[in-house]
Amino acid sequence: MRYSLAVHGGAGTILKSNMTPEKEAAYHQGLRRALDAGEEILRDGGSALDAVTAAVCALEDEPLFNAGRGAVFTDQGEQEMDAAVMDGRDRRAGSVASIFGPKNPVRAARAVMEHTVHVTMTGPNALAIARKAGLEFADKDYFFTQARWDALQETLRLKKAGEDDGDPARRHGTVGAVARDVDGNLAAATSTGGWTGKAAGRIGDTPVIGAGTFADNATCAVSGTGHGEIFMRWTAASEIAARMRHAGESLEQAARHVVMVDLKENDGSGGVIAVDRDGNITLPFNSEGMYRGYVRSGEEPQTEIYR
Questions:
Q1: How far apart are CA 161 and CA 1, in angstroms?
Q2: Strand 120-122 and strand 92-99: pairing?
Q3: What is the four-CA torsion angle of 150, 155, 158, 164, rounded to 10 degrees?
């Protein structure tokens, strides 16, 4: 049996003309570290769930990506993070929303799945679950990045002047991973800081099971990145699985239809990464670019940004 792993670091208006060679190399290195973290587990016969958790933790630790340490700021100048995990073996899932404190929000989501009877938690009780699970917490200095703070100031300036350009890059910061392990099990994990200047308390598609995160051994595992409100309204992640299950479509057909038709035609810019029960991988997106990478048994890891 072969394993497969894919990761993403967000999608949006990623123009090569705005990217320095040094920054582009840093993005590739960040994606590669996430692939290495997940593949190490899969190569040793570990579970898809452990692999996607490790991969997303690596992305949360990298300030370049909008999750964990690199999370963006709300319109109130705070950081509120969402994350989710889902196990394809039995559809167990856990997610957290609008939390701050755990260094790796994806681990907090997994704690909800493994230590409670609930799927989604927020507020003080979500943090209490994370603490009880022994997760590491960090203070504001750890999560602060000057680039994210400057982006908030620019966004607030544009809004005040009535000049908000609606740049999709402001609302596409998400990281995620999907995997199939050597036992044929699937899993997905997603984490985000939301979008720059979002309303405090706003919750996007990432922690909504079936919208930004989904996994079922019978079909596929999916992690999305994009305009979260549209991903939720079109239940994007589970719709891919539904098209496979009920319409007999392949992973590629189903994912492409959801991304290029359902989402694109309804202001749902963004993309997904997905893997099916046979280990096939697809990474469609309808924006200018998507930070992404993948690896399969016996193959060299690949990372990409543009089309």
A1: 57
A2: parallel
A3: 150
84: its two tokens: 């989710």
Q: Which residues are catalytic?
A: 174
Q: Is 123 exposed, middle or buried (0-12, 13-18, 19+ CB in 10 A)?
A: exposed
pLDDT in tens, 121-131: 999 999 999 99
pLDDT digits (tens, 9 = 90+) for 59-95: 999 999 999 999 999 999 999 999 999 999 999 999 9
Nearest to 58 by CA among 136, 175, 169, 145: 175
What pLDDT, on the 0 to 100 scale, is given for residue 169?
Answer: 61
Residues whose CB is less than 8 angstroms from the CB of residue 229 and which lie 6 or more positions away in sequence, other chains included: 204, 205
Q: Using an 8 Å Cβ cutoff, are 305 and 285 in contact? A: no
Indicate yes or no: pTM above 0.70: yes
Q: How far apart are CA 51 and CA 179, in angstroms?
A: 7
Compute the distance between CA of residue 270 and CA of residue 79 in angstroms, rounded to an integer: 22
Tell me the helices (H) and strands (E) count for the chain, helix number first.
9, 12
Token pair for residue 179? 């995997």
